[in-house]
Amino acid sequence: MKVKTQVTDAYLKKMRLERELEDLNSRVITAEGEYERASEELNNGVVHSGSSVYHNSEDGCVWFVFKPTMTDAEISSACDRLGIDVGGDRDRGVFDDNDWDCSGKTLVDPAHIKRTKTRVLVTQHWYVDV
Question: 13-68 pLDDT, tens per residue?
Fold first, then answer.
């Protein structure tokens, strides 16, 4: 009976360690993705970025702070490389009442660019068509 308990305990310990290893592997993969995205942003002139999510994840805003020395053309080009839709890509190309058809697609407003002496802020609001 004692051997059976030891085998059971060893098996449970092994399973717990495997779960911990899977969790650590997932964290490493997440950290690598965050590092790659941060490096890509830094290489394109972004000095800070973030996002806010509202209303049960149905809408939100992403924002990027660029170096103040960048021209509008450089910012637009960097936004293209980063996948920020400065033009406001819609699920049908035009934002109208027909876009709200519960498609589940993400609708985005055109990015808003605000320039100050010390930074350039690019914000973009998005919505999920639910």
Answer: 999 999 999 999 999 999 999 999 889 999 999 999 998 988 777 889 999 999 99
Q: Is-contact 122 79, C-beta < 8 A?
A: yes
- Are 62 and 109 spatial neighbours (Cβ–Cβ below 8 Å)? no
Two tokens, residue 66: 């660029």
Which residue, 84, 79, 78, 75, is CA-closest to 108? 84
3-state helix, strand, coil in the chain (%, to 5): 45, 25, 30
Which pLDDT belongs to residue 94? 47
- The counts of H helices and E strands in the chain are 2, 5
Distances from the Cα of 61 to the Cα of 23, 24, 69, 85, angstroms = 29, 30, 24, 13
In the chain, what are the domain boundaries? 1-43, 46-128
